[in-house]
Amino acid sequence: MRRGFVNWAEISIDIGMMYLFVGGLWFFSYIAGVNTGFSPLITWLTGIHFHYSAFLLCISLGLFGRLHDSKLYRWIAPMILSGPMLVAIGITFWPILEVISVLMYIFAIYSLVLLAFQTHFATRIQAVCIRLSFSALAVTIIFSFLYALGNAFGEWIIRIDFMLAFHGFFNCIIFGLLGVVGWAMSSPKTKQLSWEFPISQVRGKLIVTGDSHPGLVDDLSAFVDTKALTKTIIEFYEQTDRYQLIASIKWATWFKPFAMCYKLISKQMQQLNLPISSKETEMTGEIKKIDTGVDGRVKPRAWIRKVGEQTAFVAIYSQHNTAGRTYMNIALPLPHSSMIGILQLEEIDGRLILKSEGSGDEGIYLGAGKFLFKLPLSEHFTITETHTGHLTALHKMKIFGIPFLEIDYRIVER
């Protein structure tokens, strides 16, 4: 759980171990003669299903993910992980779901085979074993699809006796055996990082009692080389209270129903409380010092932004240094927890970029108790001076890599 929900390689291995338990229950039911509501043959085959297409495939997928990480891998991993359960549900309750699940499986497995042939392995023999192992699935999944069609529509092209002989042999000997041998030759080590950076200890609603503070940071050059940045961009971060923000909030169409439901909660929390309308509106704000003993980080200060009388954001700004890089460390207090944004700053063509994606501490996390979870969220800011004294800021957010929120800011000196 401490890894969070973004490392699909490790998630795959975790879920694979869970599927082993499920497969064990079904196999125990078969051996013990427990009445599962299915024939002994189906009970036995279900146990095998969860051992091979669930446990073994998920473990292999996870080990492969330690060698290869790409956008396509991150798309197909959840498809493969959910596939065994969806197929089992489809067989039990709704055969059409079984067909849909197998179609999804086909796309994911053929993509996995493609990625395997593009990936460098430790040895040539390992590459042959793993590629043949995945390729065997590309063959057997077609027969699974034909069997699923027969189960759904009653027109049997492939029957269970053929599946037992052909499908079973390919999955056991070629996929299973070659896969185990291949990974046994050289098991990739995890790339999971341990997070040692400080996080805010503030949980729940923040009670602000400190004095006013002028800026979000004391010295922007501590984060990024400011030589190519304009004076206005630097002053905005160091003298934030001198600037006025006009915001236009644009929710993605697909996300609007969720945003409207969340609005009922955010209005009560007075946190992450954004308008649904995209109409331009002024965001007023003030920055207050926070007691270091309460927050636990270096020089914390809270930026409280409002839309009218409603608080939109309460963000506690600080910073930390890891491996010679200084990150912006931002906490948004939530009930019994805190959302943590670790942003890397860089200058590109005179613009200031802040982003939560990178190979270091960057990311969006949830701190709850002693645990820190990395969330499948990302954000990206672009600060630009359009003409003297006038800035624009574009704030984009994604969930699972899918855009769901965009905020356009116009920033001018008061």
UniProtKB/TrEMBL annotation:
Pfam families the UniProt entry points to: YndJ
Swiss-Prot/TrEMBL keywords: Membrane, Transmembrane, Transmembrane helix
Keyword Transferase in record: no
Chain ranges passing through the membrane: 12-32, 44-65, 72-93, 99-117, 129-150, 162-185
InterPro entries in the cross-refs: YndJ-like (IPR025450)
The protein's name in its UniProt record: YndJ-like protein
